[in-house]
Amino acid sequence: MKNLNRELSTLVSIRPHQYLVNFLGVSLKGDQINLVTEYCLGGTLFHLLHKNRTKLDNRTKLNFCLDICKGLMYLHSLKPAILHRDLKSLNLLLDRDYNENGIIKIADFGLAKTLTDENLNTS
């Protein structure tokens, strides 16, 4: 519940952005709570690389890296800045087939944290 609350409060505070999975709402059914987000047709980067065993050319790799950096730059530019803290291929989604110049979007904000003076600790 703690991670769900954190993710929900983070998603609500973020305006829609091209390189982040957009939050659409919440679905309540009985005691089940579901976050409703944008559907990304291309699946996860993990699936593309490890399940499909797709070999990416250097240009595609660079484009993916740039997309991820743009998403992180946006999160870090917010006031207060948001730290994702769980960036991995399972949390990077393709908005469509990568062959169609798809965009990588950052997802899963369950471990995200806002950077405030109180938690600004380098240790």
- Under CATH at level 1, the class stands as Mainly Alpha
The CATH architecture is Orthogonal Bundle
Strand order in the sheet with the most strands: 3-5-6
Please write the string of helix (H) and strand (E) elements.
Answer: HEEEHHEEEE
A few lines on this structure:
32% of the residues lie in helices and 22% in strands.
Give an overview of the whole structure:
This protein is of the alpha+beta class and 123 residues long. It has one domain: Orthogonal Bundle (Transferase(Phosphotransferase), domain 1). The strands form 3 sheets. A 3-stranded antiparallel β-sheet has the order 3-5-6. Strands 1-2 form a two-stranded antiparallel sheet. A two-stranded antiparallel sheet has the order 4-7. The longest helix is centred in the middle third of the chain and has 20 residues. The model has no long low-confidence stretch (mean pLDDT 88).
Give the arrangement of secondary structure elements.
Layout: H1 2-13, E1 23-29, E2 32-37, E3 43-44, H2 45-51, H3 58-77, E4 81-83, E5 92-94, E6 104-106, E7 113-115
Antiparallel strand pairs: 1-2, 3-5, 4-7, 5-6
What descriptive keywords fit this protein?
123 residues; alpha+beta; Transferase(Phosphotransferase), domain 1; two-stranded antiparallel ribbon; 3 helices
